[in-house]
């Protein structure tokens, strides 16, 4: 159990909590903010996108692939490294909290597949019925993932702060970084920073070891913005 001084924690719109402790959870909160933002946009954009706009549906499918890849990377890293590290130390009710995280990830997977299949169907054989079914699935996924992220931020990150030191968390984070190929990094950085306040973005990109992230941001933000505009072409504003 850690006894080190609490560090300042990032808070972003939609975040349920930011438990105090020795571990800086900023990157986790940036990812969670982006997952919530994406599902808000997909759930709003799909019913507003005309069935006949093939370019928009193809862009939505490509944009979904970015979201799904980052979410898979995030959840599989937590399942493989973060939850086991917590289970090594957790007792009683704390164990049940961590085990619920695994179950919630597993519960989200079929909804993710159903949404991807719906988008694929809108590209291959678009129809109003398929679009309606996809809208329902997106709302269900948004609710399920939202509940999971709220639960994780409120209870599981409180456990991270109570049971792990900053150095132990950094060692776990190294596993995430190892699977961050340059291709994934160039997609992830502009995706993660959409709607993040400028001062927060600059602080994150200016951190030690942040040069690769800044390069990825500068090089790929233009192409990501074009994909974003094409996918969410029918969202007002
Ligand atoms: Fe997470």
From TrEMBL:
Matching Gene3D superfamilies: nmb1532 protein domain like
Every Hemerythrin-like domain range: 27-156
Pfam families xrefs: Hemerythrin
InterPro entries: Hemerythrin-like (IPR012312)
Protein name, as recorded: Hemerythrin-like domain-containing protein
């Amino acid at each position: 159990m850690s006894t080190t001084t609490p560090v300042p924690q990032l808070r972003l719109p939609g975040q349920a909590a930011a438990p105090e402790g020795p571990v800086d959870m900023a990157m986790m909160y940036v990812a969670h903010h982006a997952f919530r933002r994406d599902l808000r946009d997909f759930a709003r954009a799909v019913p507003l996108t005309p069935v006949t706009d093939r370019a928009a549906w193809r862009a939505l499918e490509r944009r979904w692939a970015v979201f799904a890849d980052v979410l898979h990377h995030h959840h599989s890293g937590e399942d493989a490294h973060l939850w086991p590290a917590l289970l090594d130390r957790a007792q009683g009710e704390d164990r049940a909290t961590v085990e619920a995280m695994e179950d919630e990830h597993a519960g989200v997977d079929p909804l993710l597949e159903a949404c991807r299949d719906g988008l694929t169907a809108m590209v291959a054989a678009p129809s109003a019925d398929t679009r309606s079914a996809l809208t329902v699935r997106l709302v269900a996924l948004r609710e399920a993932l939202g509940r999971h992220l709220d639960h994780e931020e409120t209870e599981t990150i409180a456990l991270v702060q109570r049971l792990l030191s900053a150095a132990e968390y950094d060692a776990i984070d190294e596993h995430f970084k190892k699977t961050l190929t340059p291709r994934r990094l160039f997609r992830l950085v502009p995706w993660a920073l959409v709607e993040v306040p400028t001062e927060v973005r600059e602080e994150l990109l200016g951190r030690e070891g942040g040069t690769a992230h800044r390069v990825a941001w500068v090089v790929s933000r233009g192409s990501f913005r074009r994909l974003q505009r094409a996918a969410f072409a029918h969202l007002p504003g």
